[in-house]
Amino acid sequence: MSEATLALMTNVDPRSIMRTISPIISELGAFSAALVLYDTVYRLAHQEGASRLTENLAEHFPLYGEIIESGLSPAEAEQIIEDRTNRLIEEFKDFSSIVVVGIESVILDSLSRKLPGSRFYLIPHSETIEEERVLANFPPNVHLIDVREIMGLGGTRSALLSYVFCQVQEDSFIYPVTFRAIGPDVRSSYNQIVGLNMLSSYNRYLGDMAPLYSTSQFFTNQFRIV
Amino acid sequence: MIGAVLISVMIATLIIQALIPARKMLVIFSGATVTMTIAATLGNQSILNIYSGVPWDVLVILLGLGIFSSLFARSRLFSSLAVWCSRGSQGKYLLLLIMFSSIMFILSCTLNNLTALLLVLPVLLSILKALGATQGFIALCFSMLIVACNLGGAATPIGDFPAILLMGTGSISFVRYLILAFPMCILLFSALLVLSAVYYTRKGKEDAAPLERSLALISMAKLYRNFTIDKTILYPGVGVFCIMFGLWIIAGRIGLSPGVICFLGVGLLMVIKNEEAEDIVRRRIDFESILFLTALFLMVSCMAASGILDYIAGLMSMYFTDTKILVCALMICCGISTAIFSAGPSMATMLPIAQHIILKGDVPGETVYVGLALSVCAGSSFLLTAATAGPLAQSIVEKSGLTTREGRSAKFDFMTFLPFGIFAYAIIQVGGLLFVLVRI
Predict the structure, then answer these.
(1) Which of A14, A147, B126, B235 is deepest in the core (most CB within 10 A)?
(2) Whole-angstrom Cα distance, residue B269 to residue B157?
(3) Which of B97, B194, B83, B188 is nearest to B136 (CA)?
(4) Is residue B87 classed exposed, middle or buried when 0-12, 13-18 and 19+ CB atoms within 10 A define those classes?
(5) Domain A75-224, CATH homologous superfamily name and number
(6) Are B328 and B142 in contact (CB under 8 A)?
(7) Do B226 and A128 touch (CB under 8 A)?
(8) ipTM of this complex
(9) pLDDT tier at B366, thresholds 50, 70, 90
(10) Which chain A residue is nearest to residue B125, measuring alpha carbons?
């Protein structure tokens, strides 16, 4: 690995990286975007280059650092995600409706294809998405909905899935849209409310997340992703 | 006298609709109503005669091709081509400019360029957002795209309104238009593209850093990861289009008008894809432009019947005694009036005058008609507001939130386009004039 390539990772402007990946953060999800970034940097500059970029991006994109911290290569990370997704498939196979708050394509691509009999209702975590493009990438059993429609989709055969970040003991951070989605009225309407743990350790830069205290009261089941 | 009143009403209508585009339908219909009332009451024209002056075949072709483009768009062909272009460009700005302009030229040759723009621009905007282009490149790229749309539209008899008008009114056959206009448009497009590329290279081209480029390309691949062409629409669409194309070529021999062929083809595709067709006919057809052109044709029909257009043609013939200069003057008038009033009004008014000049003088009609189409194309490329593709592209860029590499909001507006517009107008207009002068 040449020093010039490694220097590129240290000298790169984090804002330009964020500009480049912001559409995939919106449409694929922050975790999926972090994996894409890791995979790209790994190909160009291997593990050493990927690690150097961590410091540069720490303030802007902490999820990337979290994945690097795990010490897994992109291929290993993908394998683990696939295993965890298969467990989720087992969990959800009897549900006819699955409402997902926030998009994470790395999980939903395979989940929606392996459960063709279930209807998936996605509530995007970002407003800057091209709905037609997002839907074109998923099978026909996936629909985009607004958070206001969440109550009508509840029932005994309905499950709700969302993402949890930085869990420390009983508390964690969540997408702001999740906060509305799992209010007391909604919690009683769904058979299961599952939280996917995306970022395990605390990170002070999650400025756009909402704190959720006593997380376990909100989620009936939790899965750790990486 | 009545003719002078009618032409004054028409000019006033065109100026007001250009000044208040938000009320252009109201203005044009008011103008048509006033014109028809004057023609019927003071000019003793019968309403039936006014109606018979409207080239209905042209409206039928426009409507049919609109339905066809919308159906075709559902196959995701446009977006898939744009994604392919992004991948093929390897994230290099110059290749992006060349590939996207070429795709827009090719698509505009056969399909509605507004539909093509609506589906191709989001992909181009995504890759430009990811790469972080400079303001200079963004202006150049979108300007070239607009001109590519105009030239593609002029290249074939079904590409855009002026050419459809020429074919629909029987002024020129499908094959003759194609033989004369297509090579000229390819030549002009290539010249403009080469000059744009040279300008960009001289201006100091600077591609994005390797990491940004790799990341941008992978991001695009991920954003369109399962994006596939709907072959159940594409294959029948291509099949029907080939049949229509074949029939247009032999239209004269089989005695079918281009409009009837268009309707037959579109009808066949609608039967094959009936569910999608029903939705398109109910919700997606651009009736606004059809109604706008109908009102315009009614005004032109009143003027033609009053004899004012013969009078103008006679005046021009008297003033310009040399036929070559007369045709060149008509073409320049056509180009400038297109820049101000847009292609529809300009071509609809200039065509009857051109027909009189062709009838009176010893001028090859086909050459003049193609020359006029090239002049309309030049005028459409002059100002951003001259062709509908311009304001559409401006609005898409504004809404996209595209930023430059420096982090500022990207601009693509009237003034940003103007320098390139003047340049493109000059090249296309001179190309058209040379084409006519060589052939007369």
Answers:
(1) B126
(2) 21
(3) B97
(4) middle
(5) Translation initiation factor eif-2b; domain 2 (3.40.50.10470)
(6) no
(7) no
(8) 0.89
(9) very high
(10) A23
